[in-house]
Amino acid sequence: MTTDFWFACIGAVLIAMALFTFIRHTHLLRRILAFNIMGSGVFLILVGLAQHQRQTDPVPQALVLTGIVVAVAATALALIIFRRFYQLSGRTELDEDQQ
Amino acid sequence: MIYLQYLLVGAGCLFFIVGTLGLLRFPDTFTRIHAITKADNLGLGLLMLGLLPSTESLPQALKLILIWLLVLAASATASYLIAHYVKAQSPDALPHADTTSEEQD
Amino acid sequence: MQFAFDSMLGLGLLACAAGVFWSRDLFRSVVMFIAFGLLLALTWVRLEAPDLALAEAAIGAGLTGVLLLDAIGHLRQHNEHSPRNHWLLPLLCCIALALLLILSFNARPEASISLPQLVAESLPESGVEHPITAVLLNFRSYDTLLEIAVLLVAAVVAMALNDGLAAAARTSTEQSNRDPVLAGFTSRLAPVILLVAIYVLWAGSYMPGGAFQGGAILAAGLVLLKLADFHIERYAESLLRLGLAFGFLVFLAVATSVMIGGRPFLTYPEAFAGQFILFIEAVLTFSIGLILFSLFNQSPGQEVPHDN
């Protein structure tokens, strides 16, 4: 069990946990959080698996660096849309999620 | 020299542990701030002192000291802001009698 | 020793994620998310990816945390509806997904070409000494060009959603309630942050650092100024808007201008590659910082009354 493989496995577990939360919770802010952590899990797998039993690899690291910056922009945009939705409707859940 | 470094880093870690323990165990926000900032500043200072002899060049050493100073200033400001906020939420509560600030930890 | 540290770190990541997902209070979730970002930054160090650690500490823990806390602050109540009742099937599916992912790790195909070797061989021609900067701005600069385009689109959408509201929000918070300690600290810290951002940008050509990390630090500094009630965006609004597009436009102009000399799109002449990359990176840092800041700045506040 190398360090890289261990953290790739952690990434897989993070993805599964985040997916479960994403399905189960309907509050949009919590879904944004879960989505972010799912992305972090994917990044861990990308880097960890590429470096497992090989040397450090700058290509996946560069891709993940791009990914981190795009992820924060996407999160910020999601938060802005969520806050606008909340402003207009006063709700924190989507219509189809209301029980 | 290396044993002195071990001693300093070990003492720094001890301060971190004590500070974290205080953060977890103390009853209200004010005492928690007290625990975490005092312990962290001193702990980080000791860590930095312990690491200074291992630096390879003067710029590297200066960067370490700069990090410590920045953390000192930032944590002092942050603690002030948190204490200020808690005080504004419950103006009549004495700092040591404040037990309703559980959700602001 | 190292294995013990890795185990602790991995379990810490899982514990923080569990805190984010299953704590009752959303505020607590967000705080756990910030802690998760810091632990992830440490993880990148363990994976020998210091560039990612820098970016994660500035973005994952810093900027995202501020954005989330700001959003939480504008919600009237933190409590949420109870989660859905049917949970067994999703739980089983998610456990199966995790197991399948981990099993598939062992069945991955062998790489037919060695990318690190390829990068190391072409590094002397790239104009920079740090492999990740070389990949981002020379070998795969398409990605970076499209990335800054995506960021620009996000900023434009944010502005479109907020236009008109911004003016209303501005008048409502006209008188400043500047906290003296925070303002004093921030005004002294701002030059240091700017210096660090430029240093990280400059260092990117030969060691971990570069446009993204520098831009993130710049954005963090701008957000801090905004939080301390220094409204710099009011003094130069049109300049700020121009600055958002500046990075993408300059990058595109450089990428196409080399075609005049008969080169393919996005290739730099070898003799000046280093200068080209540094120039593009400087412009990118500026634009990324401004875009990330404006995404924070454009967030709709609660002051605006909603009429439904």
TrEMBL record, chain A:
Membrane spanning stretches: 5-23, 32-50, 62-82
Gene Ontology CC annotation, any one: plasma membrane
Protein topology in the membrane: Multi-pass membrane protein
Any Pfam family the entry gives: Oxidored_q2
Cell compartments where the protein resides: Cell membrane
Gene3D superfamilies from the UniProt entry: 1.10.287.3510
Keyword terms, alphabetized: Cell membrane, Membrane, Transmembrane, Transmembrane helix
Record's keyword annotation contains Transmembrane helix: yes
InterPro entries in the cross-refs: CPA3_antiporter_subunitC (IPR050601), NUOK/Mnh_C1-like (IPR039428)
Similarity comment: Belongs to the CPA3 antiporters (TC 2.A.63) subunit C family.
PANTHER family documented for this protein: ANTIPORTER SUBUNIT MNHC2-RELATED
Record protein name field: Na+/H+ antiporter subunit C
Organism listed in the record: Aliidiomarina soli
Automatic annotation (TrEMBL), chain B:
Sorted UniProt keywords: Membrane, Transmembrane, Transmembrane helix
Taxonomic path: Bacteria, Pseudomonadati, Pseudomonadota, Gammaproteobacteria, Alteromonadales
Pfam families per UniProt: PhaG_MnhG_YufB
Keyword Membrane: yes
Transmembrane portions of the chain: 6-24, 65-86
Protein name (record): Na+/H+ antiporter subunit G
Keyword NADP belongs to the record: no
From TrEMBL, chain C:
Keywords recorded for this protein, A-Z: Cell membrane, Membrane, Transmembrane, Transmembrane helix
Entries under PANTHER family matching the protein: NA(+)/H(+) ANTIPORTER SUBUNIT B, NA(+)_H(+) ANTIPORTER SUBUNIT B
Membrane-spanning residues: 6-23, 30-47, 53-75, 87-107, 148-169, 181-204, 210-227, 239-260, 272-296
Domain MrpA C-terminal/MbhD stretches: 12-76
Protein name: Sodium:proton antiporter
Lineage: Bacteria, Pseudomonadati, Pseudomonadota, Gammaproteobacteria, Alteromonadales
Gene3D superfamilies: NADH-ubiquinone/plastoquinone oxidoreductase chain 6, subunit NuoJ
Family that this chain belongs to: Belongs to the CPA3 antiporters (TC 2.A.63) subunit B family.
Organism per entry: Aliidiomarina sedimenti
Subcellular locations according to the entry: Cell membrane
Na+/H+ antiporter MnhB subunit-related protein domain: residues covered: 185-288
Membrane topology: Multi-pass membrane protein
